[in-house]
Write a structure and sequence with these properties.
The protein is an alpha/beta fold. About 50% of the residues lie in helices and about 10% in strands.
Length: about 450
């Protein structure tokens, strides 16, 4: 006779996979396209793999010294060294002064989780984390479960159709002192040197702790060294920070989940203390990180010839992405699609905002079976010679059917008598903030008026 389960009160958990991807997989339309994948795709609709990785795997398998023993809790020491050097440069002052180190993790999420656990116990400041809107789904729950409150920000200017990294000043100015700033893909930040100097002074003054996230080093410019100039500047300026470094995308080892939590401190003594604590967390979280992917990457980065071949394959992929952007823009022009599409080539990396409205996105999803996140952020490597014509024709159709076309413009001005401005700004900020995406740009504008 069956007995009642002691888990009768356990509810069915919501799916962790994207509803958009679920809908795409269930769609039986032969023309369906998914533009939201989180990995680099090839023209053959499969995840990209650097050719040098395949040969390195064969070499390791036939190496008589290769074994499958457990790694220590902090991971493969040689991998940590070469990955950290790739991030900050072999001749970084932090390496010379022995105040930078890392912990081998299970992908970028593992690095974020490990760093967040440490900050929960040891960071002396408000439990407030600022992160970009696009990272909320991936990392928000990690920080929330540890007691942090999440505040979102975005660099995409929906009015001027540009990525305005200058908005980082507004974020830092209004953040509480000693709060945490999650900085995603720092290689895409373009600011004049004087502004970076001004920003670094503000960060130090407010003691904002930086937690950088580098998910696909090299995919911004095609040069891994160029992509991390900002991090190297922060190191030279004496900042303490964490950095989640995921190398799975950069090498095409998507199922190996190779990550590194890089720790930059002011002294070797601080580094040793922090790493000792992180080792304890890693021991009870996963015991030993997976080794094969890290050994492949270590072999490639330690061999000058293999390293050069990897960089060439990375550059070739980035050039292909840039060409796809140009092709999409040109095809929209030839179709006489209303609007400005210069912003497609003005962005970099795998991901870009299309600059279209929520209604136009909905039209593409429901009428044309082209699955795009509601914010219009797409993965350009999902566009290939087989679907580019269908995609551009569908965008043209959506613009003509819904309108208006994307056009750079100034944000709306809010007129207010001078004598009442100070009294009305604060309640207006609260009201506009509650509107979220329905009132893009207004929140920042009101803060600037305040």
């Amino acid at each position: 006779m069956p007995t009642l389960s002691v888990f009768l009160d356990v509810p069915l958990a919501p799916k962790t996979t994207s509803k958009l991807l679920d809908d795409f997989q269930q769609d039986e339309d032969p023309n369906k396209v998914y533009l939201g994948y989180g990995v680099c795709m090839t023209g053959e609709k499969i995840p990209w793999l650097s050719p040098v990785v395949t040969r390195t795997l064969r070499r390791l398998i036939h190496d008589p010294s290769f074994n499958y023993t457990y790694l220590p809790e902090h991971g493969l020491e040689e991998f940590i060294r070469v990955a950290t050097e790739l991030l900050v440069g072999r001749h970084s002052p932090a390496i010379a002064e022995n105040r930078i180190g890392g912990v081998h993790t299970i992908g970028g999420n593992g690095a974020i989780l490990l760093g967040a656990k440490f900050l929960k116990d040891w960071h002396r400041g408000p439990r407030v984390v600022y992160m970009q809107q696009s990272q909320r789904e991936q990392y928000g729950l990690i920080f929330q479960e540890l007691g942090f409150s999440i505040r979102e920000y975005t660099f995409w200017d929906t009015y001027r159709l540009v990525s305005d990294t200058g908005k980082l000043f507004d974020v830092v100015e209004h953040a509480p002192d000693r709060s945490i700033l999650l900085l995603y893909n720092a290689g895409s930040f373009i600011l004049p040197r004087k502004k970076w100097f001004k920003l670094s002074k503000l960060l130090k003054k407010k003691q904002i702790f930086l937690f950088c996230d580098i998910p696909d080093q090299g995919f911004v410019s095609g040069d891994p060294d160029m992509d991390n100039k900002i991090l190297r500047y922060l190191v030279a300026q004496g900042f303490e920070f964490f950095c989640s470094q995921s190398l799975s995308n950069s090498f095409g080892l998507h199922d190996e989940r190779v990550g590194n939590l890089v720790v930059v401190t002011v002294s070797n003594k601080s580094l040793l203390c922090i790493r000792s604590q992180l080792d304890i967390y890693a021991r009870y979280m996963w015991g030993s990180p997976p080794a094969l992917g890290s050994r492949v990457i270590t072999t490639i980065l330690s061999n000058p010839a293999l390293r050069m071949e990897w960089k060439k394959s990375l550059r070739s992929m980035v050039e292909s992405i840039m060409l796809t952007r140009e092709k999409v823009k040109e095809k929209l022009r030839l179709l006489c699609t209303p609007g400005s599409w210069e912003h497609l080539t003005g962005q970099d990396g795998m991901y870009s905002f299309l600059g279209i409205t929520v209604e136009q996105v909905d039209y593409l999803v429901t009428k044309k079976h082209i699955y795009i996140p509601m914010n219009g952020l797409i993965n350009f490597t999902c566009i290939n010679y087989q679907n580019i014509d269908y995609i551009t024709q569908s965008i043209n159709e959506a613009i003509l059917a819904i309108g208006p076309a994307p056009q750079p413009r100034e944000p709306p001005k809010i007129a207010m008598p001078d004598n009442t401005a100070s009294k009305k700004i604060d309640p207006m900020i609260s009201e506009v903030k509650s509107l979220g995406a329905k009132a893009p740009g207004l929140y920042s504008y009101l803060h600037s008026k305040k």
